[in-house]
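Q: Convert this sequence to structure tokens.
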Amino acid sequence: MDTSTIFSFHLPTKLVHGYNAITHVGKEAKRLGIKKALVVTDGGVKGAGLIDSGLKRLESEGIPAAVFDEVEMDPGTATVAKGIDLLKREGCNGVIVVGGGSPMCAGKAIALVGTNGGSIADYEGSEKYKVPPLPIIGIPTTAGAGSEVSSTFIITDEKRNYKIAIAGARVYPDVAILDPVLLLNIPFWPGVNAGMDALSHAIGACCTNDATPITDSLAMASIAIMMKHLAPHVLTQDLEAKNQQLIASVMANMACGNAKLDLIHALS
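A:
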């Protein structure tokens, strides 16, 4: 590395990891000052009962919740607007996302518009918002996108038929709860697709001009973990394999979030 190079590494998200870590969601929400939570998810995750234990933990801390489960794959501006309507109608002051990359993107968008107003399309680009979003807790149910530790999210602008990127230092979720038990019954293809997404993040992070020894270390370590555990994660009920894949996916996004993405993601 050039001795004149100066680099930074940024990750403000608190990680809570372990088997049944979702039991901490109530305490974390209370610590963040959430009085009523909007739980953002999709119909499949809700139908599988993956939000149930989290709702109970919120209730045990005296935090009521409204559930928004209308998130589709690659959510659009209309979905975000629906979520905002529910947020305002229910008087929620915090967002808890349970799901994969699509609910994560929708939840982060709702949290941002919830404090800044307007349409999510108004904030296309980097640092276009005026005030921070509402508190966000991300709880992934796949081990792929790593959006729960990312400063960026993608929303489809239906008017332009175009995916817009919104980013900023305050867009990171406040807390990421990593619970491998939530991955126990993940279907084969969603598991494979998510795993390859994580692998592409790690490989891409090694190939950018902004890669550093720190991002390289995270990326290479995550690749090694995925080479060993991705297959048993998607092919078996091996809980430790799912745990390792979940850790690796987060490490991969920590790497690419700081080293930036490669041409593969630019073209996609």
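The two ends are 30 Å apart (CA to CA).
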